Amino acid sequence: MLSPTEVYLRGSGLTSPRVRERLIERLQDAGISDERVLRSMRRTPRHLFVEEAFSGRAYEDTALPIGHGQTISQPYTVARMSEAILRDGVPNKVLEIGTGSGYQTAILADLTNQVFSIERIKSLQDLARERLRVLDRYNVRLRHADGWQGWSAHGPFDAILVAAAPDEIPPRLLEQIAEGGRMVIPVGPQGGVQRLLMIRRVDGVLREEILEGASFVPLIAGAVA
Ligand code: SAH
Question: What percentage of the chain exceeds 90 in pLDDT?
């Protein structure tokens, strides 16, 4: 007998293995080639991270609303950022800014040793916590706070992933990149030209590289909601 959770995780119809596999093929067609990332996305059920009304669209390569004017990131974006995070070796300690639904958090938890993730909207964080528990991804610590400040008590981090776009790179986050570490962050105005950047600390010097164009919700400064 399958437990109700197992039945839900297996899914049926629109969440069948075939529908999920089609998303993986689409990501490969779009240039995602890191097998670790593809494997992780294959075994992380995205329909658990969206509201039930959208679960039929969970395996489309598109961002979807998660409430509070926020969205679960497009699978391509999650894959691309995860690839960038792993490019120079598997990081031990990762900081994520903008937990949102917790989907990218779950992928990071699968791919790396330890994940610290900050979200400014408490109700989103609570839902994310529950989903990570259902999936047994326990190597994650969540914090309800303003991500601009990072999480210095646990830093520096081998990798930082920022899931919302500031106009300028938050200096406190730069400080928390470990030597040899990296940060993937979209920068630019809401609705304007945004760029996904990779910033690495090599021999104490920060080096910046543009990965591609981007379109993210804004990284909101200041008080938590
Ligand atoms: N990867 C997430 C993306 C969610 S959208 C997912 O796929 O679900 C970006 C998230 O960043 C939102 O949940 C938003 O509330 C959060 N956010 C925006 N500004 C923030 C800040 N200053 N600190 C922490 N989280 C922030």
Answer: 86
